[in-house]
Amino acid sequence: MVATDSWTIYWQADHPDSCIATGAVHDADTISDFWQSFAQSTAAESRVLDLATGNGTVPLALLQGNTSLLVTGVDRADIDPKKYLASSDLLDPVEFTGGIDVCELPFAAGAFDVLSSQFGIEYAPLEKAVPAIATVLRSGGRLQFVLHHAASDIVVATRKKRKEMEGLLSE
Known about the structure:
alpha/beta, 5-stranded parallel β-sheet, Rossmann fold, globular
């Protein structure tokens, strides 16, 4: 089967992550350190669900900070980091599943202690995604998301495009 959606094509081309400014060498390290610190503050053997995981950048950093975490990564794209990444050995303990919409998570209520996402959850329709992710997070569980800031080039460009489309589609 040939991949046709852009994110599936992107993730199957050996990209370890996305949305990290290539001009700022330390950005990726800073974000990785952030996730490692978060993992170190997370109880041993916590069940973690990484939403819009891509090729597992967040699971990798989490496991570098706390090897006892039980990490699951889901993405709407057809992902398989263990197959498509040139170096994926550190991701062996992670259970990855592609074709999962964050608005329709196939997990039991309260199945996870922690939910994470990096530059992904904000692309979902939040009015549908929030109830879905709230259901799979155990009572008292932790959320940790890294999002684009409101003035980022990606958000501004998307906001302009959305406004343009709304104008074209309105009566």
